[in-house]
Amino acid sequence: MDAQNLTARLKSSGLLRSQALIGGKWIDAYDGKTIKVHNPATGEVITEVPCMGSKETNDAISSSYDAFYSWSKRTAAERSRHLRKWYDLLIAHREELGQLITLEQGKPLTEAMGEVTYGANFIEFFSEEAKRVYGDIIPSPLADRRLLVLKQPVGVVGAITPWNFPLAMITRKVGPALACGCTVIIKPSEFTPLTALAAAELALQAGIPPGAVNVVMGNASDIGDALLASPQVRKITFTGSTAVGKKLMAGASATVKKISLELGGNAPCIVFDDADIDVAVKGALGAKFRNSGQTCVCANRIIVQEGIYEKFADAFSKAVQNLKVGDGFSEGVAQGPLINEAALHKVESFVQDALSKGAKVLLGGKRHSLGRTFYEPTVLSDVKSEMLISREEVFGPVAPLLRFKTEEEAIRMANDTNAGLAAYIFTNNVQRSWRVTEALEYGLVGVNEGLISTEVAPFGGIKQSGLGREGSKYGIDEYLELKYMCLGNMTGN
Ligand code: SIN
């Protein structure tokens, strides 16, 4: 199906929305301004969406604040039922949502459909967790007192989300927020607002009340500033770059908001001499080339022990060579385009820096013949720790191979960064897997596995990769306040 037919079909399904959602109403920007949403594979304009700023954001905050009063008063069972209904609708529309993701983000359709399942699973998981927000009773040091701890929703949440997972990064935040009674203003990336709007339409269809979920998009800094300035917004949750995360953290201090940050990584993927080579190749391939290398948990440095280095480099390059590049809607494509020109330039400049300092191209190393923002899946050997590609996230389909001698050296190289999100190790030695996992300064460690994200496990980083955890039973705590209640005169004397 061509892009125009697809767009028409998505429009008639009611899931291609081109207005923002405030207080349950679909609206344009107050000054009528719009921004174009492009298909990164073709450059074509899919549609235009409102380019909003502080006025619209303040109205979204007011509607969210009003909705908080009634939504937080509903029983956990009621909130759970609405979330479950939302999950059912997301799954029922898995195909259309997957198509929207491929259309605006570029990832291959099978991967996009996988994201819909992954994203919807957060809503299902938190529909269940809604009923398990337990408080506590503390043994009192005084005989006539009873001490209780209540857990209560923080209030209005500003959720600022990235383009690389247009659905899952929203549901991972909105699921736990709604489950415990918070209301939300979502600010999706201007590159990928359409999936967010479709998900919000389905939230309305699930009976989640007007104002509980709002979506505004447009001028990122105006929207961000309005969310930060408002005392009614009690929490900011953000996935994106470390630089923006630091600004949000500073901005949140003015009104002392709670904040969760899921920021950039620089994931090491350590392959020891004793690894099973097939497992290591498959794991490193998944960890590096998911979403064309555009995830915060993508392996950024593949650190290989000297005894297995040549064998691994050869087997890995062969596997990478088999990755078909193309439009995400074409059959068998495993690598789509990068999101935009700026992303492509970044990849090119990192590769250039590495080559100028002695790295060698084993595969790829240049723009793909398809043109636009397609880049060839690339493997570089002889990469050194001081090269730009080892210091910062390349966020593209380039796998740099570094060499190490000893376990101590591998741990030192892996930890030699300000980032601390994901790490991967490949070894058949059980003691080593524990020892190295414990020594790695990272929030997530995959052992003999390259795909580790799931709604049931805590996702988040340490050091400058962020604050807080998303998903799992721990993820809901980020949206709760503790209230201590002291009951006096309890012995009746
Ligand atoms: C991200 O890239 O920020 C998220 C990746 C994931 O959820 O696996």
Automatic annotation (TrEMBL):
One of its GO terms (biological process) is gamma-aminobutyric acid catabolic process. It is found in: Mitochondrion matrix. Homotetramer. Its main location: mitochondrion. Its EC number is 1.2.1.24. This is Succinate-semialdehyde dehydrogenase. It catalyses: succinate semialdehyde + NAD(+) + H2O = succinate + NADH + 2 H(+). Pathway: Amino-acid degradation; 4-aminobutanoate degradation. Gene3D superfamilies: Aldehyde Dehydrogenase, Chain A, domain 1 (3.40.605.10), Aldehyde Dehydrogenase, Chain A, domain 2 (3.40.309.10). GO terms for cellular component: mitochondrial matrix. It comes from Punica granatum (Pomegranate). Keywords: Mitochondrion, NAD, Oxidoreductase. It holds the Pfam family Aldedh. CDD domains: ALDH_F5_SSADH_GabD (cd07103). One of its GO terms (molecular function) is succinate-semialdehyde dehydrogenase (NAD+) activity. Belongs to the aldehyde dehydrogenase family. PROSITE patterns: ALDEHYDE_DEHYDR_CYS, ALDEHYDE_DEHYDR_GLU. The lineage of its organism: Eukaryota, Viridiplantae, Streptophyta, Embryophyta, Tracheophyta.
